[in-house]
Design goal:
- The chain has 188 residues and is α+β, with helices and mostly antiparallel strands.
- It has one domain (39-185): Alpha-Beta Complex (tt1808, chain A).
- The chain has helices spanning 15-19, 42-62, 123-136, 182-185, and strands at residues 2-5, 27-30, 33-36, 65-69, 74-77, 82-84, 88-92, 112-116, 140-145, 150-154, 161-164, 168-170, 179-181.
- The strands form four sheets. It has a six-stranded mixed beta sheet with strand order 4-7-8-9-10-11, sandwiched between helices. It has a three-stranded antiparallel beta sheet with strand order 1-3-2, with no helix packed on it. Strands 5-6 form a two-stranded antiparallel ribbon.
Length: 188
């Protein structure tokens, strides 16, 4: 991650100031500083599409809430502010009421977040982001590794449960009834 902007005198941006920026590259706000993130590659996009398709279909059929693709940002911490954009996220209607999708970054964390690793990602950085999501109130963070075709499920109680192949990815009480074979998330 490269810092795109660090205002003079190290003045840190708020989430609201960050929302008003028009930047030429993909970024996130990390502890008040704008940080550039890599443009995803096609394999990354395919896995994100697969996750979105399966999760959104389930959530829509059950009328449970919203599934957001494409790095939809939410505020993970304040003072200094951070705005992160998971690859795919799920909000139940209890966290984001029906018909009340905010126009600005939400202070409310989604219940489930998916992050798809890129070839340039380092596990140290990915795990720091997992902890940040959990600290913000996300109940389950699933890190998908397209190179190994594995899913790493993280909750406040358990970090890094490894699933692969025909093992089923579920989220228990967080998303009752949802199940998908890990291999389906990596299918071409």
């Amino acid at each position: 991650m490269a810092i795109v902007t660090a205002p003079a005198g190290e003045r840190l941006l708020t989430a609201e100031e960050y929302a008003d920026l028009s930047l030429p590259t993909r970024t996130e706000l990390v502890r008040g500083k704008v940080v550039e993130v890599n443009q995803p590659r096609p394999r990354h996009g395919l896995v994100c599409r697969n996750v979105f398709r399966v999760l959104d279909g389930f959530v829509d059929r059950q009328d449970l809430g919203y599934v957001f693709p494409n790095d939809t940002g939410f505020i993970t911490r304040r003072s200094p502010d951070s705005v992160r954009g998971p690859d795919v996220s799920f909000y139940s209607y209890s966290r984001m009421p029906k018909g009340q999708v905010p126009r600005q970054y939400s202070d409310v964390a989604p219940e489930v977040v998916f992050e798809v690793m890129s070839p340039t990602d380092r596990w140290r950085d990915v795990l720091a982001k997992v902890v940040e999501y959990l600290d913000a109130g996300v109940l389950a963070v699933c890190v998908l590794d397209p190179e190994q075709e594995t899913a790493h499920v993280n909750t406040a109680e358990r970090v890094g449960k490894l699933l692969e192949g025909d093992e089923e990815l579920t989220f228990g009480d967080v998303l009752p009834g949802f199940a998908v074979k890990v291999s389906e998330l990596f299918a071409n």
